């Protein structure tokens, strides 16, 4: 069994895939020969084979220490320095991981911080960590991102107050650039253990670097197996021939659909634990392709939950969307629907069936309904959600994103648009260097 891709419900004909062969090949060459836009940010392609094995061992050691001496592990980061680890932990750990007893989860609670600017969130967090043993992983490639920097300033002071400078330093781990940025300087000065985000790997492509690996290892997950999945994905998805490469088929088909006016892609799952894979995916595609006035808008829904909210729109609303379903073939757990003699709820027709049986029927029923409602449906079949397939799936989407971005004709590896709000915010906050813009904005208020 393997990850497979089914486009039989896409309304596309095989010859249309054939027609995409040349353009996909050109994108493949650009990516692999490093001749396209953003060519300095392609370190993720070979990272699953090139990664620093010595650092990987350090990650495992640090994770073990944290698992031994920590009640609550705080992961401070935003965007690409946040969503990959959260996606993995939510997809692969117990659904109620933080609520399990220490024996059962066999590791610390894991809480993500510094991904918003809410004082309420941080204040509430500080209330619940009181009296617990804490370790922190501050993650920032640039080392200057406002959200994690503010949270870390406050948490660092809290740690030093609680443990004293010496012990606090042993409980703070920094993942950042090897030589540049405020966090690198601060870490060197304070003597934190550090892990490196390579120069040529952008945030949203950094799951397999220490950005993802340390928090994921702290959760007790098998990072070797995850890298193995990515490594096999790298091998399989470098096949040039679109007919033999399901990753390239996905990249090509989403562009064909986009050119037909399907400007929204809705990623669908039937397992709540996949919610953050969708969040990670939204960032990957939104930030990589939404530029130069074009790009598919990436959206996501959790089914069957959202069939009771967004279902109506998907079935009958504006026909400018297509769906991509993540189908986990074998659910991690299942539960039988029992017989009830009185049958007051009329559910006895399901007696002896399992919840996953029902869930799969909901999937097929929805698929046919939405296809009948003229929504092209693409299906990514994943044999099961474990570390190996998580790694492979992440690599599948990363590789497809690089190819898809080049087909679209954008630089998928930059994000100039995210600077605009920051410049305004800094000006409004009175950050030195932004005086002129501050004056301009004041007039607009
Ligand atoms: O993908 C990206 O480049 C961004 O989402 C960044 O990861 C995010 O802005 C965080 O940046 P940094 O790691 O520099 O704090």
From TrEMBL:
It comes from the Bacteria. It catalyses: alpha-D-glucose 6-phosphate = beta-D-fructose 6-phosphate. GO terms for molecular function: carbohydrate derivative binding; glucose-6-phosphate isomerase activity; monosaccharide binding. It is an enzyme of class 5 (isomerase). The keyword Zinc-finger does not apply. Pathway: Carbohydrate biosynthesis; gluconeogenesis; Carbohydrate degradation; glycolysis; D-glyceraldehyde 3-phosphate and glycerone phosphate from D-glucose: step 2/4. It is found in: Cytoplasm. Its EC number is 5.3.1.9. Catalyzes the reversible isomerization of glucose-6-phosphate to fructose-6-phosphate. Belongs to the GPI family. This is Glucose-6-phosphate isomerase. It comes from Maledivibacter halophilus. The gene is pgi.
């Amino acid at each position: 069994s393997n990850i497979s891709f089914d486009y039989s419900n896409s309304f596309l004909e095989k010859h249309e895939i054939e027609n995409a062969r040349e353009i996909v090949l050109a994108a493949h060459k650009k990516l692999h020969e490093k001749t396209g836009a953003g060519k300095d940010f392609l370190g993720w392609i070979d990272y699953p084979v090139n990664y620093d094995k010595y650092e990987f061992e350090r990650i495992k050691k640090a994770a073990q220490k944290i698992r031994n001496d920590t009640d609550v592990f705080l992961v401070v980061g935003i965007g690409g320095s946040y969503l990959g680890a959260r996606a993995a932990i939510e997809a692969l750990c117990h659904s109620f991981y933080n609520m399990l007893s220490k024996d059962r989860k066999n590791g610390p609670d894991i809480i993500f911080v510094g991904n918003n600017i809410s004082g309420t969130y941080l204040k509430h967090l500080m209330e619940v960590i009181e009296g617990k043993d804490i370790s922190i992983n501050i993650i920032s490639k640039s080392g200057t991102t406002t959200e994690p920097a503010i949270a870390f300033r406050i948490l660092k002071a809290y740690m030093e107050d609680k443990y004293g400078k010496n012990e606090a330093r042993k409980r703070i781990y920094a993942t950042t650039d090897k030589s540049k940025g405020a966090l690198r300087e601060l870490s060197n000065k304070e003597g934190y253990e550090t892990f490196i985000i390579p120069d040529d790997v952008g945030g949203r492509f950094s799951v397999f670097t220490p950005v993802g690996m340390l928090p994921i290892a702290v959760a007790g997950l098998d990072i070797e197996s995850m890298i193995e999945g990515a490594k096999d994905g790298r091998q399989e998805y470098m096949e040039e021939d679109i007919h033999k490469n399901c990753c390239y088929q996905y990249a090509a088909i989403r562009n064909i659909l986009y050119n037909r006016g399907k400007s929204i892609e809705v990623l669908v799952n039937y397992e709540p634990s996949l919610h953050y894979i969708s969040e990670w995916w939204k960032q990957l595609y939104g930030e990589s392709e939404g530029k130069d006035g074009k790009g598919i808008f990436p959206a996501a829904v959790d089914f069957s939950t959202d069939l009771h909210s967004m279902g109506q729109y998907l079935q009958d609303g504006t026909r400018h969307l297509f769906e991509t379903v993540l189908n986990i073939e074998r659910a991690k757990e299942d539960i039988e629907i029992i017989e009830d003699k009185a049958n007051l709820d009329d559910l006895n027709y399901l007696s002896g069936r399992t919840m996953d049986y029902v869930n799969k029927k909901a999937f097929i029923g929805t698929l046919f309904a939405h296809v009948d409602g003229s929504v092209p449906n693409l299906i990514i079949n994943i044999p099961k959600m474990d570390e190996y397939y998580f790694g492979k799936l992440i690599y599948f989407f990363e590789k497809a994103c690089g190819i898809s971005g080049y087909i679209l004709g954008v630089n998928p590896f930059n994000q100039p648009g995210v600077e605009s709000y920051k410049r305004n915010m800094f000006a409004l906050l009175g950050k030195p260097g932004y005086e002129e813009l501050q004056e301009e904005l004041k007039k607009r208020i």
